[in-house]
Amino acid sequence: MTTIGSVAANFTRDLEENYRTIARYAELARESGVDFLVFPEAAIGGYLSSLGNHGDTVSTAGSLPPAIRLDGPEIARVQEIVGDLVVAIGFCELDDDGVSRYNAAAVLDGHRVYGTYRKVHQPLGENMSYASGGDYRVFDTPVGRVGLQICYDKAFPEAARVMALQGAEIIASLSAWPAARTATAANLQEDRWTYRFNLFDSARALDNQVFWVASNQAGTFGSLRYVGNAKIVDPGGNVLATTTLDEGLAVAEVDVAGTFAAMRAGMFHLRDRRPDVYGSLVEVSDPADERTLASA
């Protein structure tokens, strides 16, 4: 059996406060027997303070998250905190060129970084603050084969499918997912963006018959109001545990091998695919076609 934990919490530019939050949830996870713990997108240094649209300014240089190298002291500090606990955590990665920044995530423990990911799909002008990643991979870890994705990635079925085809057993989806910017619901749990966040989580788990772990920021930062709803979803799309809007830790014990054997004994979506009829999914569209779709 494997025990999975997912965090909903608030992370800002205050690195020392972030480390204290990471330590608090790591300790709660140990007390709950958690083997794999997922922190949100931008848990080290916070996310952008706002998101622009149609070319609006996103953030000034001074307000950007701190740029972190994989071999830098910030990642080492997290490893010191988590010890033998396997975690996935988000941060702003500084490229080797010393200039390019990526919205990134890593799966690691106190002894090793098992793999890293740079966010591919960027919403609402995020590309004004981050470069875009270019691939999806799956990493062997002590808790199984783990795939990573970040926030808006979950809206694209192809992202999770690529990792499922690489043998992902668990996909960690790290987010800084806010409520809608217009016509926001008085109760954020009923907000349309909260609904989409939760729907994507269940759909992607069921699409690929994998365990899905969604973490998210909670509270507020800059102009963004986050919707929490950290959760663990089983391969049937069933939510096993969730924080809803609140900060907290969602925990579920799962039998990865046993669940896969049961779920995939009958309808096995990966086996029953028809790639021979999916050609248009990977065709590069003409920019004029994209403009037509956008205006439809």
From TrEMBL:
<feature type="domain" description="CN hydrolase">
    <location>
        <begin position="2"/>
        <end position="256"/>
    </location>
</feature>
<keyword id="KW-0012">Acyltransferase</keyword>
<dbReference type="GO" id="GO:0016746">
    <property type="term" value="F:acyltransferase activity"/>
</dbReference>
<dbReference type="InterPro" id="IPR050345">
    <property type="entry name" value="Aliph_Amidase/BUP"/>
</dbReference>
<dbReference type="Pfam" id="PF00795">
    <property type="entry name" value="CN_hydrolase"/>
</dbReference>
<keyword id="KW-0378">Hydrolase</keyword>
<dbReference type="InterPro" id="IPR003010">
    <property type="entry name" value="C-N_Hydrolase"/>
</dbReference>
<dbReference type="InterPro" id="IPR036526">
    <property type="entry name" value="C-N_Hydrolase_sf"/>
</dbReference>
<dbReference type="GO" id="GO:0016811">
    <property type="term" value="F:hydrolase activity, acting on carbon-nitrogen (but not peptide) bonds, in linear amides"/>
</dbReference>
<keyword id="KW-0808">Transferase</keyword>
<protein>
    <submittedName>
        <fullName>Acyltransferase</fullName>
    </submittedName>
</protein>
